[in-house]
Structure formats: C-alpha cells, structure tokens
Amino acid sequence: MAEKKLVPNQSIKLRTRSLNLYYGAFHALGDITMDIYDRSITAIIGPSGCGKSTLLRVFNRMNDLIPSVRVEGEVLLDDLSVYGKNADVVSLRKKVGMVFQRPNVFPKNIYDNIAIGPKKHGIKRLSQLDEIVERSLAQVALWDEVKDDLKKPGLELTPGQQQRLCIARAIAVEPEVILMDESCSALDPESTMKIEELMFSLMERYAIIIVTHNMEQALRVSDMAAFLMIGQDRIGQLVEYGPTIGMFSTPKDKRTEDYITGRFG
Amino acid sequence: MKLTPAQSERIAKTMIWAAALLVIGLLLFIMVYILVKGLPVLSLQFLTDIPRSMGRAGGIASTIVGTFMVTALAIAIVIPFGIGTAFYLAEYTKGNIVTRIIRFSAESLAGIPSIVYGLFGFIFFVIYLGLGWSIISGGLTLAFMILPTVIRTSEEAILAVPHIYREVSFSLSATKWQTISKVVFPSALLGIVNGVLLSVGRCVAETAAVILTAGSSYGMPTSVFSPTRTMAVHFYLLASEGISMENAYGTAALLIVLILLINVVANAFVNRFIAKGR
After folding, report:
1. Closest CA to A208 of A223, A220, A219
2. How far apart are CA B84 and CA B100, in angstroms?
C-alpha cells in the first residue's frame, strides 16, 4: 500500500471559494471552501443525499445538464475560473475526466470505446490512436488481458474489466483531474481492490477525487478527506476537511466522529 | 368452484399460449395462402413485361418500378424531416409550448385515414401545384402520411438510449452535436431503422392515397413526373374489378416476398453497423 502523507506537499490543483449551489429554490451546497491537492487522492464522504455527487460534479460542470442548477462562488482549476464568463465547458471536461458509479461502456468494441474521446479531439491518425489505446489500457492494467481481442464488444468484459475500461476511456483524453463517483460500489471486492491499486498508480500523474460510501475505502486510499453533511438548515455543508489519517484517528467535529464510527448514516 | 393457484396459473398459461398460437397461425395461413396461389404466376415474363389489356395479360414490371419510385421518394423526403424532428423533440427541447404543438400535430396526423391524405395530395400537389398524377405527387403525399410514424418511432428510439451514455460522452468533453452524432444516433439507429421499415411497408401497401395522387396508368414511368400504378393499386384494381384474380395473387405474392427481403437486408445492414461499432 502506498505511503500515506499526513499533509500532501503537492501544489493545489482545484480550489473552491464560498461555493453555493442551488437546484431551483433548493439550496443544495452551502458555502464550501476547500483546496484540492494535485497528485493525491481526495475522498468526499458523508451520508446519502448530503450533496457529495453534486459537489463532485461541480468540478467538471456536469451539473450543467440539469436545467435549474445555479452556482455561486468561485471554483478554480489551477488559476482558471471554472464557472467564469469565458470558461469553456468542453475544454474544462477535457482536463477533468469522470468515472461513473456503474461501468457504462458504450455498445462498441474495446478499441472504439477508448478511441472515441481522442477522436472527438481531432486525432485521426490510426497509428496515433493505436498508441493512445495501448497506453490507456496499459495504465489501467487491462492491456495484457485484452490486447488480442480489441475488436471484442466492450460489454462482453466482466464488470470489473468494464470499469477499468471506463477509467481507460477517461484517461485517454489525457485529463489532469479524475473524478470517481462511487466507482467501486457496483463491483465485487476483488475488482474493487484492482481499482484501488489503479488509483494509487494514477495518483502519480493526476489529482483524483472520489466519492465513496465505504469508510474503509476512504481510509485505505485517500490522502485527504472531506466530510459533508446536511446541516440544520437543510443545506449540504463541509463539516470537516483535512488529511484522512488525522480525520479518522482524531476527528475534530463530533458529527464526523459519529459518522465514521458508524453511529449514523 | 374455487381454483387453486396452480390451476389458475395453468389456465392463464394455456390462454396466453392459445392467443399467441392463433395470431402466428393466422399470419402464417395468410402468407402461405397468398404465396401458394401467387408464386406459380411469377415468371420472368410476368416480372419483366408491363401489364396488357388492363392487366389480364402481360406482367407487372411497370408497377414494380412505380412502387419503388414512389416509396423511395417518400422515404427520402421523410428521413431528414422525420428524424430531424425526432432529435429536436428528444434532445433539444424540454417540453415547452413548441414541443407540445409539434407533438399534438404529429399525433393528430397519425390518426388521419390515408384516404384523407390522398384527397389532400390530390387537391394540393396534383391540382394546385399542377404536378398532376405523378410519382412526385404520390411520394410527397406518402411522405406526409408516414411522417408521424417516423417521428414517433425515432423519438422513442432516441429516448431509449440510456441517459448515462450522454453523461459519459459529455464527461469526455464532447459537444452536444458530437454526443448526438457519435453516441446517441448510433445507439438509436436500430430503432430508427425499424420505424422507417415500418413506414416502407405502409408506403408499399398503400392504395387509397396513391391512387388519388399517382394515378393508375400502368405504362412504364419515365421520370418522377410520370403517373404510375403501384403494385398495391394494381392488384386492388385487378381484384375489385374482377379483371384477373390470378394476376392479383401473383402481384401480392411478389409484394410479400419483397417486404421480407427488405426486412432481411435492412437487418443485415444494421447488424453490420452495430458489429462495426461505429
């Protein structure tokens, strides 16, 4: 297992400043300010419905797909404003990739599942695409398993392999940040372990943010942990944010302690 | 008398089986009946000669050509408009007043009997636009007739594409158009093609709307402005006017064979498209 850092000494990749998010009149996230470190794993934890996924989807603006969403405050990727007037969603999503809860490979073959992203960005040369496909599959340790039948439909892989294919598909567009929305929750323990090992190897190059319901997983893989909860005012808020080991050994907030020791949620 | 659960289960199963068997049996009976009566009539001469003495003699070559031209024209017109409308409804609007008007219009159009389309086509294309009884009048009229079906089936196929595919596509930094053309369209293609095929069948089988707009002259058409007699109109006239039941069955048999053929070819095409994965 990778060595845990108490405080990552990496530079800061993403910042939120007084982030508020509304679904129409519903105030879903209140006043969230946090810094997310590059080349580290940040876990967002908290009870169901507290806005973990909503927060995750702020970083690649996936919430934009819901018409009534309004975002206030500032989100910065490096020094670029994510929600600024001149922000370009398409180039943002090229930098911030996402892996979803369920393995959702396209009904295409393995090769095309990965090539679809780079193709959208205008890479047409076959030799270049071949290289991207091989590199992406190698990064998720799937290359040796599938190199002989890249034309096989992606849906014929096992769920664990499919999820690794989805990760390969996300990194094929060479993002800088990878968002993982409960990406192991639909998988068996062995596949989960493989994905976690994968996270450690990907951490060398990317900032990874995961949402998880699994406290052991958060403790195993993450360097930093953010605990979200719905407050008295029905608004999701950031209760505690800090190095994972610190939070799990000596939580500063009573609510964090209750949650991670399994007293509720 | 009270039935045990096992008994009621058995009765329900029997009834459902009987219903299914009856339907399949009827379908097979009709097809076999027509093929048995009609296939012996089919000969090279029947397929390559134009009808003579009102269809009592000769073949049906010109009606085959007429059917193909009218149907092809209708499908060519309906595909861009129908599928375009379906994508607009499914992907670009969120149930506003415009969508409601389009949907209401499409649904109303779908409920109109084909003879009314025929009458409209006759008044508008044949008389008002001066296109006369012609393949183009017939094709345009049929395009109007099948438009609602194509919109409806395409929209359903598009909506059946899992929402997560769109999310994944956007998360890979695709634009909306890339998402629709590279992800949604390929996934919906099978359903869209099926809807179009259904419409091909309706065009090929239509009589009322065609007889009023494309006419019933059985000479070999020379352009889209020629009048024509489609196969369905031909055997309708042969049968209803008692000209030649034999040749009517021959035409009907060919029609059935053609529709089966179209289905097989289209399925092969779609399967290949899916297998290629693009």
Report:
1. A223
2. 16
Per-residue tokens: A146 = 């599938």
| Longest CA–CA separation in chain B, Å | 72
Contact yes or no for A93 and B278 at CB 8 A: no
Contact present, A164 and A198 (Cβ < 8 Å): yes
Average pLDDT over residues A79-84: 89
In CATH terms, the fold of domain B44-277 is MetI-like fold (1.10.3720)
pLDDT value at position A45?
93
- Cβ neighbours of residue A48 closer than 8 Å, sequence gap 6 or more: A213, A265
The two structure tokens encoding residue A234: 């029905």
Could you tell me the pLDDT band of residue A239, with boundaries at 50, 70 and 90?
very high
Least confident span in A6-20, A232-246, B174-188: A6-20
Give the angle A72-A75-A76 at the CA atoms, nearest 5°.
155
Q: Look at the pTM and tell me if it is higher than 0.90.
A: no
C-alpha span between A81 and A92 (Å, rounded): 10
Question: Mutating which of A114, A120, A124 best tests the B interface, going by the most B Cβ atoms within 10 A?
Answer: A120
State whether B187 and A107 contact (CB < 8 Å).
yes
Nearest to B278 among A112, A121, A170 (CB): A112
* Average confidence score pLDDT of chain B: 89
Q: Which two tokens stand for residue B193?
A: 């093609």
Beta strand pairing status for A69-77 and A236-243?
unpaired
Say what the ipTM of the complex is: 0.87
* A102/B162 touch (CB, cutoff 8 Å), yes or no: no
In the numeric block, the tokens 């997983």 are attached to A217
Domain spanning A12-260 has what CATH number? 3.40.50.300
* CA-based nearest distance A190→chain B, Å: 25
Asked if A123 reaches chain B (Cβ–Cβ under 8 Å), the answer is no
Q: How far apart are CA B55 and CA B37, in angstroms?
A: 17
* φ, ψ (nearest 5 deg) of residue B223: -155, 180
How do residues B209-232 score in pLDDT, each as one tens digit?
999 999 888 888 888 899 999 999
Predicted local confidence at residue A181, as pLDDT: 93
Chain B residue closest in CA terms to A59 = B171
Domain ranges of chain B: 5-41, 44-277
Name the strand (E) or helix (H) holding A58.
none
Spell out where B30-123 has E strands.
51-52, 57-58
| Cβ–Cβ gap A170/B172 under 8 Å | yes
